[in-house]
Amino acid sequence: VRGPRFRRLKIGAGHRLDVKASGVFVLGVGHGNKLLTDLYNCHLTKVYTIGGLFGKATDDFSDTGKLVEKTTFDHITREKLERILAVIQGTNHKALLMHSNIDMKTQEAYELAVKGLIRPMGKSPPIITAIRCLQLTLPEFQLEIHCLHETQQYLRKIVHEIGLELKSSAVCTQVRRIRDGVFTLDDALLRTQWNLQSIQNAIWDCQLKVKTELEKTLG
């Protein structure tokens, strides 16, 4: 697209994805850059599907890293895996409450919990708000992780630590973000859709959900 109207068009990036990750990546165009900042200040949950492989460890926790060791994995069961996931979620729930700075005995806390709005409204370490096993077919497994303030490398490390807790090892084979706040895969544009009309349509389609979320969270 060329012409004076587009020479000063500002485009900004939301929560980043590293080179080994895929999925929902939000961009702001023009006034959308301010909305990106407002959404960032909402500290909304992001959701990932994570692929893993038991039986080996690498130097960067991914399946493409340098092999460090191989281990057995035949003893791993879904029950054992889900027990570890429950511990991870419980530990992170305590961290969520601590960093939210909310007195859980108050009416305000109850109302926020009902609305699903208990979250850190400032900086905090990565926090997992939910984690579950979607599939386990040894040695492969797939998880769904809901989280705040994470990096994709942090999620790969979680896979590594799950392997250790199960007296084995594990590497991450996939990190795919399927939700970033109000945006889901259904809102995403494929590379073949990167044209003016598709981008305009996407902006119009997302305006209401963005406005609703900002009013609910920031007032």
Write the layout of secondary structure elements.
Layout: E1 11-13, E2 22-23, E3 27-29, H1 32-42, E4 46-54, E5 56-58, E6 67-70, H2 78-100, H3 107-115, E7 127-137, E8 140-148, H4 152-165, E9 170-180, E10 183-184, H5 196-218
Parallel strand pairs: 2-9
Antiparallel strand pairs: 1-3, 4-8, 4-9, 5-6, 7-8, 9-10
Helix pairs in contact: 1-5
Can you characterise this structure?
- With 219 residues, this protein is of the alpha+beta class.
- Helix content is 37%, strand content 26%.
- The chain has helices at 32-42, 78-100, 107-115, 152-165, 196-218; strands at residues 11-13, 22-23, 27-29, 46-54, 56-58, 67-70, 127-137, 140-148, 170-180, 183-184.
Q: How many DSSP H or I helices? A: 5
Shape estimate: globular
Which range does the strand content fall in?
Answer: 25-35%
Unreliable segments of 5+ consecutive residues: none
- Strand-and-helix sequence, N→C? EEEHEEEHHEEHEEH
Q: What does the radius of gyration come to?
A: 20 Å
Describe this protein with a few key phrases.
10 strands; two-stranded antiparallel ribbon; 219 residues; single chain; alpha+beta
